[in-house]
UniProtKB/TrEMBL annotation:
The keyword NAD does not apply. It is found in: Cytoplasm. Belongs to the HPr family. Its main location: cytoplasm. Gene3D superfamilies: HPr-like. This is HPr family phosphocarrier protein. Pfam families: PTS-HPr. Residues 2-89 form the HPr domain. Coiled coil: none annotated. InterPro entries: HPr (IPR050399), HPr-like (IPR000032), HPr-like_sf (IPR035895), PTS_HPr_His_P_site (IPR001020). Transmembrane segments: none annotated. It comes from the Bacteria.
Amino acid sequence: MKCSEEVTIVNQLGLHARAATKLAQLCQQFQAKIELVQEDKTADASSVLALLMLASSKGKTLLVCADGEDATQALRAVADLIKNGFDEN
C-alpha cells in the first residue's frame, strides 16, 4: 500500500542531527519504505545522512511517502513526530 501526507517542519532547529536520528530510528521500526521529499530532493527516511542532506529548516514543507505492508501506520508515526517538533518543545 502506498500513501503520503504533507507536513511542515515546526521545531526551531529544523531537521538537525538529533531530530534526524530520532526520525531514522522511528522509520527503521517499520517494514514500509519511507521517503521524504522536499522540493526536488528525496531522502530515505531511515538514513540519518540522507535526512541531513535535505537541509530542512523551520517552515519547510515535506511530503512523507510510505510504501509497504505497514505504510499507513508508518506514515502516521512519522507525520506525528514531525508535527510534534520531534518532541523537542
